[in-house]
Write a structure and sequence with these properties.
By secondary structure, the protein is an alpha/beta fold. It has eight helices and 14 strands. It has two domains: 63 residues, Alpha-Beta Plaits, CATH 3.30.70; 197 residues, Vaccinia Virus protein VP39 (Rossmann fold). β8, α5 and β9 form a beta-alpha-beta unit. α4 runs parallel beside α5. The radius of gyration is 18 Å and the shape is globular.
């Protein structure tokens, strides 16, 4: 399942709701929020092509939901601890921590339904990040594009980043990431709402993580390269196996050298270095 969502004005809704209903039928939900200027529209898509069509025609964001997303959404059950290498454990509540010595703890509530670190795309990104930063002694910064709940950015702070910036064009996701920042009492973690294809970097980063749809990922690669320091690294995920070759070619066109490839089920992730 894939969740497409967008925050809209009442005027936008009046113009576009008929078209959305024609495309999504009973899968469309319009959430009106008292006292708020904007409403939330969302569609549960059973096929990736449907979500991509919505993004192309209406903007917004689309995120892959884990198989058991409905159980999370309805019961808000805690997920088992997720160990990331030898240095980090992600739990849905502090009481679930396994009390492993010398392992940093990050709390990402399961009520978010996605972005807890369980999904293959996130898990591969987390493990690649832990591996590449394991022996890094110099100060480093990370940019997380399409941050969602902020799990990758906040994990980076636990893994030694001096500061992180998370971007998402969904203000609801940014608010969620900020709540997780406060929950974990993490400083020097900034989350902002921004269009990834219009955002211009004002600083350079040693690492970029981008867990995005392939089309958006390819379009954003020039910006991500600009945001990276020389010899910096990018971790890209959210890639279906059939799209991996196209992503690899796009990385090459943008002067990235693939260092590692990971596969979990139908998903692929790459670690690539920025060529000087």
């Amino acid at each position: 399942m894939i969740l497409w969502r967008k925050q809209v004005t009442h005027r936008w809704l009046a113009v576009n709701q008929p078209s959305l209903e024609e495309i999504a039928a009973n899968d469309l939900a319009v959430i009106l929020r008292a006292g708020k200027v904007r409403s939330l529209v969302q569609v549960i898509c059973r096929r990736r092509a449907g979500a991509q069509q919505l993004v192309r025609e209406f903007g917004g964001v689309a995120r892959v939901l884990p198989r058991n997303w409905l159980k999370f959404a309805q019961k808000q059950e805690a997920h088992p601890p997720i160990r990331i290498g030898r240095r980090l454990e992600i739990v849905s509540e502090p009481a679930a921590a396994s009390k492993v010595n010398n392992m940093a703890l990050l709390v990402i509530p399961a009520a978010g339904a996605f972005g807890t670190g369980e999904h293959a795309t996130t898990a591969m990104s987390l493990r690649l990040l832990e591996e590449i930063t394991r022996n890094r002694r110099l100060s480093w910064r990370l940019l997380d594009a399409g941050t969602g709940t902020g799990v990758l950015a906040l994990a980076a702070r636990r893994l030694g980043a001096s500061e992180v910036l998370g971007l998402d064009n969904d203000p609801g996701a940014v608010a969620h990431a900020r709540r997780n920042t406060r929950l974990n009492r993490i400083s020097r973690a900034l989350f902002i709402a921004a269009d990834l294809l219009r955002w211009k970097p004002s600083a350079r980063y040693e690492f970029v993580t981008a867990n995005l749809f392939s089309e958006l990922l390819i379009a954003g690669l020039p910006t991500f390269r600009q945001a990276l320091r020389a010899k910096g690294y990018i971790i890209v995920s959210g890639i279906l196996q059939g799209q991996a070759e196209a992503i690899a070619r796009a990385l090459g066109r943008n002067a990235f050298q693939i260092e590692k490839q990971r596969r979990r089920g139908k998903w692929v992730a790459f670690l690539a270095a920025r060529k000087t």
